[in-house]
Amino acid sequence: MLQHNKRKAINPAEDAADIDASSFLEDAQRSVDFLFSSVVVLPGDDVTATLTKTTRRVKLAGTGLRQLPDERIVCTNAGVLRYRPANRYWVEFNHKRYVASMDDGVIGIVTDRNAEFYRVNIGAAATLGSLAFDGATKRNRPSLRLGSLVYARVSKTNPDVEPEITCEAPPSVTKKDWMTGLAIYGELNDGYVFKTSIGLAKSLLHEDCQVLASLGKKLPFEVAVGVNGVVWVHAKSTKNITIISNAIMNSETMSPSEVDAMVSRLLEEAEDVQTASYIDDAKGMIAQEERELRRVFDHLSSYRQKKKLTHTISDCKERRQRLESSRNNPEVSTLLNEQGVKMSRDEIEDELRKVDQTLEKAVADQVAAQNSNSHSRVIKNDDLYEAIKAFGKVCSKKEISDMIWEADENLDGVVDWEELRSMFNRNLLDRTELEPANLFNVVQFMTYDKKNCGIITADDTMAILFARYGQSQLEMRMKQLFGDSDELTFVDYLERVGKQRRSNVEARAKA
User: Fold this and answer.
1) Which residues does UniProt call coiled coil (predicted)?
2) According to the CATH classification, is domain 39-92 in 2.40.50.100?
3) CA 168, 172, 173: angle at the middle one, nearest 5?
4) 138-142, 195-199, 347-351, 413-417: range with highest mean pLDDT
5) What distances in angstroms separate CA 339 from CA 88, 207, 258, 343, 351, one per listed residue?
6) What number is the average pLDDT over the span 404-429?
7) With b meaning 16 or more CB within 10 Å and e meaning fewer, what string describes 454-466?
8) 199: region left, alpha or beta (phi > 0 left; psi from -120 to 50 alpha)
9) I want to staple 238 with a disulfide (CB 3.0 to 4.6 A). Which of 106, 283, 453, 471 is the partner?
10) Are 146 and 112 in contact (CB under 8 A)?
């Protein structure tokens, strides 16, 4: 009896809770617009009726909508009207410039850091708190370096100050500690990052995105898409990353059926990467090498004349400065003539005129040499000698003559562009190590040395080696060339490639 009375006493409270729960669910259901469908809108369109169909409490998320003083809601941009429960509406259109909006997922680069926050470039400046990571504490928090790539979401926006971003998951998502590597937001390591239009980036975030669905059926990969038009892709091989990034960029103006066909075509073309690599080798020079070889040819042709003109111009400018100083301040700056007597003003003026004539002629000759017809440019023995000497190595006349001979197909004693290009190609295709390579080694060093300073670093060579050999052989080729060093002088480089050539010859002899 006592138990029965107790149960009866509790029943009114339980009934009240049930009523509250039912009321909450009914309100939530009424606030969700199940009949909403995306529509194309134009600036000035009145969408008040559409947005207030289920509730008067509407939240305008992002850009494209504005509430007027008379409480009407109109569109300010042409695009597609979008909706997300509960009661969040916006117009999706292809921005030319990213404008931060609440809860946008963005990808940015760390440009500055201090103890309290990081400054991140997301297309505009933004701040990321040093503790704005799931599970981060003062003692246990990520340490991002300058240049680090970060996937985050916009947490605060204000028209008058920089937006704030965070790497913490929103309340509706289960949080994972940043140390586990399973957090949604955080630093993006490895992979490849590229920029797209903001419209394409937003389309990649749709659940029915055709290009990601088509790629996902054929390739395993990870992707992070920033609404600010930045996409990060990571896959098991460079080939797959290239396919995925190209497919995404190509898909922007394609229909779903065209996207499927395009993805299939890209996969077929890259099916046999080893065969493709062999074909590339058979073609000799890659485009990047040819561009650098052209730069080297322009540098070497008429090198001695250009060097002499440069010295002449420098000497004339220095002499002119001293003459003007002596003319303007004869008591402070004194110059002597050939007889050892202080120069008069007339003598100074006379020499100034001669210096100006010499300078004018030297500058004209320099411009003429730089703008001469490419078909008339050639590399002479003296040009090659002076260029190699500038790198700290002095060659004999016979060594220089032999190098010119390696490329001089018409035996006219000079090397033109076609001869240099042909020589470079022959050496790239040579598998016997029998092709003379002294001039090739000099020129190849210069293709790496873009500053013409006589020293190359790993960074200088990496782009060309990666383009020629791919990711699979890059590390081995870098190790062969640099060993444990970070940079090589011209003399060291010649020694390394010569040693490698001899090693290849011995290996073939044993085989």
Assistant:
1) 286-365
2) yes
3) 55
4) 413-417
5) 92, 91, 87, 10, 15
6) 90
7) bbbeeebbeebbb
8) alpha
9) 471
10) yes
Same CATH topology for 39-92 and 105-267: the answer is yes
Give dist(CA 70, CA 302) in Å, integer.
Answer: 77
Distance, in Å, from the CA atom of 502 to the CA atom of 213, rounded to the nearest integer, reads: 52
Q: Tokens 């220089």, residue?
A: 400
Beta bridge partners of 219: none
CA distance 283 to 51: 61
pLDDT at 446: 94
Q: What confidence tens digit (pLDDT) does each residue in 299-320 have?
A: 999 899 888 988 898 888 888 8
Task: State the angle between helix axes of 438-448 and 381-390 in degrees (0 to 180), rounded to the nearest 10.
Answer: 50
For residues 420 and 379, the answer to whether their CB atoms sit within 8 Å is: yes
The candidate with the shortest Cα–Cα distance to 187, out of 148, 232, 229, is: 148
- Token pair, residue 489, equals 């002088």
The answer to whether 320 and 356 are in contact (CB under 8 A) is yes
Instruction: Look at 470 and 255; give whichever has higher pLDDT.
Output: 255
Q: Do residues 72 and 45 lie in contact, with contact meaning Cβ atoms separated by under 8 Å?
A: no
Amino acid at 133: F
Please give the radius of gyration of the chain, using alpha carbons only, rounded to the nearest integer: 35
The secondary structure of residue 283, as a DSSP letter, is T
Helices (H) and strands (E) in the chain, counts: 16, 17
For residue 119, count other CB atoms closer than 10 A to its CB: 17
* Domains of the chain, residue spans: 39-92, 105-267, 303-372+376-510
d(CA 458, CA 487): 6
Coil, helix or strand at residue 487? strand
Q: Computed from CA positions of residues 474, 477, 483, 488, in that sequence, does the dihedral angle turn out positive or negative? A: negative
**Contact yes or no for 402/456 (Cβ under 8 A):** no
Burial class (CB in 10 A: 0-12, 13-18, 19+), 192: middle
Instruction: Enumerate the β-bridge partners of residue 282.
Output: none
Total-model pTM: 0.46
Query: Is the CATH code 2.40.50.140 the one for domain 105-267?
Result: yes
Query: Which 3 state secondary structure label does DSSP give 411?
Result: coil
Cα separation, 302 vs 55, whole angstroms? 80
Q: Is the peptide bond before 86 cis (omega within 30 degrees of 0)?
A: yes
Q: How much is the mean pLDDT over the chain?
A: 83
Instruction: Report whether 58 contacts 74 (CB < 8 A).
Output: no
Residue at token pair 């990601």? 212
Q: Which pLDDT tens digit goes with each residue over 356-400?
A: 888 888 888 877 777 766 667 899 999 999 999 999 999 999 999
Query: Structure tokens of 284?
Result: 């000799």
